[in-house]
Design goal:
Layout lengths: L5 E4 L12 E4 L3 E21 L3 E21 L4 E2 L13 H7 L3 E2 L2 E6 L9 E5 L8 E14 L4 E19 L3 E16 L4 E17 L7 E12 L4 H7 L4 E3 L2 E2 L39 E5 L15 E13 L4 E14 L2 E3 L4 H5 L4 E6 L14 E3 L28 E6 L5 E6 L45 E15 L2 E14 L37 E2 L6 E10 L9 E9 L7 E2 L10 E2 L12 E15 L2 E10 L15 E3 L2 E2 L14 H6 L7 E9 L1
Parallel strand pairs: 1-7, 16-20
Antiparallel strand pairs: 1-2, 3-4, 4-10, 5-6, 7-9, 8-9, 9-14, 9-15, 10-11, 11-12, 12-13, 13-17, 14-16, 17-18, 18-24, 19-20, 21-23, 22-23, 24-25, 25-26, 25-27, 27-28, 28-31, 29-30, 31-32, 32-35, 33-34
Length: about 700
Amino acid sequence: GTNLSEIRDLTGTQVAGGRGSLRAEGLGFLNSYDSTTKSLAFDTSKQATFAGHHTFSVGYYWQFPKYNNDRDYSGPRTPIPLTNHDGASYLGPTELALVTGQSTDAYYRLVVAPTSCTLCPIMNVPTPFSTTTTSVPEPVAAYVYRGIFSSPISHNAAKYHAAYVNDSWQMGNHVTLGMGVRWEQQRITAAAGKVSSVLNDQWGPRIGISVDPKGDRKSKIYANFGRYAWVMPLDAAIRELTVESDYRNAYFAPVTDSSGNLVLDKYGSVTIQPDAAHLLNRANGGIAKSVTASSVGGNGGISPIQPGTRMEYTDEFLIGAEHEFRGGVTISARYIDRRIKRIIEDFSGVSIEQSNAGFGQFYAIGNVSSKADYVVNSKEIAFSQGATFTPGPGNSGFPAGCYDSNGNVAPFDLNEQDTFGTVLGSACWPSVDMNPWTDSSGNILRDSSGNILPKFGGETGADGQPDGNADPKREYQAIEIEINKSFSHNWSLISNWRIARLRGNFEGAFRNDNGQADPGISSLFDFTPGLLNTLGKQLAVGPLNADRLHIINIYPTYILDRGPLKGLILAPGVKIQSGVPLTTLAAQSNYGNYGEVPIFGRGDLGRLPMTGTVDAHVEYPWLIREGKFLHLAVDFQNIANTKRPLSINQFVDLSYQTLNADFKKPGNGIPDNLIDGLTGGFVAPFSLRVKVQFVF
């Protein structure tokens, strides 16, 4: 119930051929909300004649959405421990300041721990059903997959204004010119109006021209350009303007007996002990991984939306031609070029390895690009790349740049690994503005209020240098050809062929590669690239998830007009489409979520095969008597019963360093969408639908 924290048991996925994962107890994420939207719109037009015929139009639109919610994880809130099992601090300097005095809820995952964890209890992990041995003893630990220690309650609203003017100018029978401009503004508020940001002065020009060469309305050549703004939903206000603060990757030893064996509770699950005595991170004989604590750069009622941030927009250019031939046949062709030019996204100023070194993330929202300068850049020093590093006595053996003038080593992250266990290297972070940055005892310098004095990078505020992110790219180019025929002489036709490509490193408001629905605050730019390649090729441009080279649709219709089957409708259909690109998606060490990083680049696994189906609709209106018909219809779907795959599981792991046995198997692989993940793996099989309808 709501009084139990969610515990998901992943141990069965970590033994060869294991039995899978299960939710052991707890409801998990809870979200109750109240949502309302008010809107107002008006428009008017006026026609005039001078130098041709003009239609002037103006309009205004206003929208006021409100969304108040309580988002939390089931179970009690417990104090965040400041020390580990050894009584030592396991937190970095900024993380310690962030969590001191805080309590968090939590969603836990039970996992098999490294054999080096002597503090971990022993559990008999079930083995595959095909084996004679029912279980194997393994060390296990429960870690905080996600915890929120900020207030779960938020009050959010937005006010959106849009106005436009337009002139459609018909210059005789041959040329029509359309010109207009749209102005938009959005104000987002949270914390009951205490935090507010305005995204304003978004101007969207629109211009189009259409030429009818003969003036007979049979042909046209046209071109259009438009700039289209994206109105950001309230998800960013809910999570970031209300200063969401997260606690992740804290490993705890569940309750054991006197022999160190795991003890199950009355629900058949483990009992978490979320206190310092059972915290395993960085303890001797514990778990070497770092805990992550993060917050939003909106503390103190200051909006995390950076000054000068403007609305996201896309530019679209289109050129085409169309001609109507005798018999109602129309052939058209057009070229479309659509490119995202500016985005709104959340970001932080630290790399994955810097966050793992104890520098808490402070998120902000802005127009992320290769030129953006929102944060102080670090002076990260990478070393022992591709090799394991072991410090000498007294933290000796680091590169010289890692020590300050007092001889004390800077904060560091050692032996960072990818999800496959490959060592990427180590790094340290000397101060960017002070030397020494420690006192004679090795403590980082602080002011009288306990605030850290030196900067190590990641702090909000411009430093005159770009933050190191890549430009966001989403570029769609397509040629579309249509051959259509209006109904005459007993038949009609709808057919089209699209040749297209979609490339970039940013999908837009929704990441359909891993199912992340966080518009404006996805995880793509949550970390700077750093020097250890922890992001793989996440920011590299490649084919995006929805890229298809060819899509062909052919749908003719024929109606018999004589004979005993007069009125019989025959409507076959053919659909052919290229396969989408396939990408290895991996977790990274800080978040631990599956599907975060296209580690080897987008499309590294190739593409799915081309698929196609032949369908048909047959319908006969049986006249019973005048004015009364019995319509009999049959729909045939996928007559050839083709079985090619539509998707495969592209998640190489279930979480960080928990590899996925179903990788590359059919299905989309999203664990929380199991049914769709299984049925969506192949072209739907042959099906038949019969309809009987009495019309009178």
